[in-house]
Every structure is written in structure tokens, then in C-alpha cells.
Amino acid sequence: MAGSVKQAESAVEALEAALHDLPDLIITDVDLAGDSGLDLIRHIRERWPAGRPLPRVVVLTAERPRPDQQFAVGSGVETFLVKPAEPEQLR
């Protein structure tokens, strides 16, 4: 797939990178070593520059999304993928 990929070591680093680079797509895990990928997406959307198209969002999870996580679909998250995600799923 064409494009560039950037990796963050923390939710704070991911937030800063997203707001600096304004990516077209964000892929995050639900669990970010003590932080929440869903909270990360909410923070990105709250701070996203007005007039810029919001990025597409894919969330990876180790198990099927819980009902309390389903709220995210339609409010910023395009889909959940259960790990390990196949390359075709990511495309």
C-alpha cells in the first residue's frame, strides 16, 4: 500500500503526532499500555482543526469489542479489527 506510516510510543505521542501530521487514517489499539485508544480518538477529534476532513479510524483489539466499546463505531471509529488483523483487512 502506498503512503507513510508513523508509530507512536504512547497516547500522548500519538495525539501530538496526529495533530501535527493530520493523517488520513489512524490505526490504534484499544489498550495503549494504561491508556485507551478510544480516549485517544476522542481527544484527537476534540482538537482536530476546523475545516479539515477527519481521519478514518480503525481500532485493533485482542478480543471482540465489548458492548460499551460499540458506541465508538459511528462516532469516529470506522471499524474494529480483532488481532492479528490480516493485511487484506487493513487495506
Give an overview in words.
- The chain has 91 residues and is α/β, with parallel strands linked by helices.
- The protein has helices spanning 11-21, 37-47, 87-90; strands at residues 25-29, 31-32, 35-36, 56-61, 79-82.
- The strands form 2 sheets. The chain has a 3-stranded parallel β-sheet, with helices on one face. It has a two-stranded antiparallel sheet with strand order 2-3.
- Helix 1 (11-21) runs parallel beside helix 2 (37-47).
- It is globular and about 35 Å long.
- 15% of the residues are buried.
How would you summarize what this structure contains?
The protein has 91 residues and is of the alpha/beta class. Helix content is 29%, strand content 21%.
